[in-house]
Amino acid sequence: MATNFLVHEKIWFDKFKYDDAERKFYEQMNGPVAGSSRQSSGPGASSGPGGDHSELVVRIASLEVENQSLRGVVQDLQQAISKLEARLSALEKSSPAHRATAPQTQHVSPMRQVEPPTRKAATATEDDEDDDIDLFGSDEEEDKEAAKLREERLRQYAEKKAKKPVLVAKSSILLDVKPWDDETDMAQLEACVRSIQLDGLTWGGSKLVPVGYGIRKLQIQCVVEDDKVGTDLLEEEITKFEEHVQSVDIAAFNKI
């Protein structure tokens, strides 16, 4: 009965094994210091001032080792800095600026001064100044040439654009001109309509279309420039012939 009860109870009988394994794992991760603390805390180990002294000795030893490693790093850095300084001095000595300034540091005694070298040096200085002036002038000449070329291209483009024909918008209009009655002279009506002359207006073909009761209307074609002639202007001009024209309608309107 008791056995069955223990079987159903959730008791961790092997907990001490897992505790030992966890302790050993952390001791291995912490290193020798952790090992010394483990020995001091373990069964049968010495406790008290002796254990604290041993722990202090271990810490001092570890600090000495770390100090030695830091000294080695500092020495390496010093060597690297000295090498960089030596290399920098060598580069400065071999640079053109140092070569140019090196002759200025040489002192010549008054008894050994010679005029020809001085003249040569002055000539070289004047040549350098002339070269600088020439280079600067060449840049200005290039800028002037570029400006002239740009102006020439703009002028050519403007001339080409001016010669290009301008596209004129035109429209084709079919007008229905209705008379008052069947007694209206349609030939005279057409002559009146064609007598209208406007800038941008061109008359085309025409025909008479029956409307009813013997009345015929005049259907006439014309081409107009949109910027110069409008439909309202056409209607106004045609309706001025009141004796022949009753009304004007736009039968068709198409862009050309």
Automatic annotation (TrEMBL):
One GO MF term attached to the UniProt entry: translation elongation factor activity
Gene3D superfamilies: 3.30.70.60
Pfam family, one: EF1_GNE
Signal peptide: none
UniProt entry keywords in alphabetical sequence: Elongation factor, Protein biosynthesis
Domain Elongation factor 1 beta central acidic region eukaryote: 135-161
Domain of life the protein comes from: Eukaryota
Domain annotation Translation elongation factor EF1B beta/delta subunit guanine nucleotide exchange: ranges: 170-256
Chain intervals with Acidic residues compositional bias: 125-144
Transmembrane feature ranges: none
CDD domains membership: EF1B
Region of interest called Disordered, as start-end residue ranges on this chain: 31-53, 92-147
InterPro entries: eEF-1beta-like_sf (IPR036219), EF-1_beta_acid_region_euk (IPR018940), EF1B_bsu/dsu (IPR049720), EF1B_bsu/dsu_GNE (IPR014038), Transl_elong_EF1B/ribsomal_bS6 (IPR014717), Transl_elong_EF1B_B/D_CS (IPR001326)
Low complexity compositional bias, start-end: 34-44
Family: Belongs to the EF-1-beta/EF-1-delta family.
Entry protein name: Elongation factor 1-delta
Species for this entry: Equus przewalskii
Lineage: Eukaryota, Metazoa, Chordata, Craniata, Vertebrata
